[in-house]
Amino acid sequence: MFVQFMNVQQTMSMKVPFGIAQQGKSFRNEVTTEKFIFRTCEFEQMEMEYFCEPGTQKEWHNYWTDARMTWWKRYANTKESFRVRHHEQDELAHYADACVDIDYLYPWGWDELEGIASRTDYDLSKHAEESGVKLSYFDQQKIDPTTGKTGIRYVPYVIEPAAGLTRAVLAFLCDAYTEEEGVDADGATKTRVLLKLHPRLAPYKAAVLPLMKKEGMPEVARSIVNQFYKAGVNASFDEQQSIGKRYARHDEIGTPYCLTVDHQTLQDNTVTIRDRDTTKQERISVDEALSVVKQRVDSF
């Protein structure tokens, strides 16, 4: 989630020492658990401490607020379900000079998904105080305004984006769940349930479905799945029930593409690729199946 910070120095002119990203379990005491996995006593959290020069923290705080909001919206269908809420002065921790929440519009209303705090030099100063170890940074190229000489030492300020991983899962599941009204082959109204997960978030990128359990179709399907596995692309082999029920099953778990091996496959080495969101189908070469799926996933 936070790999973006490694390239930040290329996009801004300020000098910055470094940033540290981490993920791990967090725990709450004396909390009322509620709203499925939104609030639990034990949860996964992702955070980063981005160190910057004192005096530049406002610019970096704005940068990370924009970068994080862009990241959330990139993987969502409904961009309007995310907002930035600035903390009022009386909400700030005593060591912070700014803080925002990125909120998501959950089924029960707006609630916090990620916090981005400007924590000044409190963290490193406290660590240095308790450990007796100096935690300062020396910039060899910057002019010290107090002496006029090259080189200045300072305790870096910290910008800390912190997001709940379990809350992110819940937010993207809520965003992806879709019910579509349609008409079946007999003209009756039916509801199609699907999970419109961004393809990069979908557990399976493709499902390979042999139309029948004979005539060599399962073998062809398994060979396609093996190609995906070798390329590091997660794919599912599914031969149970009718093809229509299999399509519906993979719509419901968010698989973006289904590849069907049928009688024509045995004749011309092509398969049908079906798009989850549009249900559009087309024929593609078996040899191109992997590259087609990878290209479509990467294009989102």
Walkthrough of the structure:
The chain has a six-stranded antiparallel β-sheet with strand order 1-2-8-5-4-3, with helices on both faces. It has a five-stranded mixed β-sheet with strand order 12-11-13-14-15, sandwiched between helices. It has a two-stranded antiparallel sheet with strand order 6-7. The relative contact order is 0.11. The model is unreliable at 1-17 (pLDDT under 50). It has helices at residues 57-74, 122-131, 165-176, 217-230, 243-253, 263-268, 289-298; strands at 19-27, 42-52, 82-86, 98-106, 109-118, 137-143, 150-154, 157-164, 177-183, 189-195, 206-210, 235-237, 257-261, 270-275, 281-285. It is elongated and about 80 Å long. It is built from seven helices and 15 strands. It is an alpha+beta fold and 300 residues long.
Beta strand %: 25-35%
- Enumerate how many helices there are, as a single number: 7
Helix content: 25-40%
Distance between the termini: 17 Å
Rg value? 25 Å
Q: Return residue spans where pLDDT drops below 50 for at least 5 consecutive residues.
A: 1-17
Strand order of the largest sheet: 1-2-8-5-4-3
Overall morphology: elongated
* Secondary-structure-derived class: alpha+beta
Q: Give the averaged pLDDT, no decimals.
A: 89
Largest sheet: 6 strands, antiparallel
Order of helices and strands: EEHEEEHEEEHEEEHEHEHEEH
> How many beta-strand elements?
15
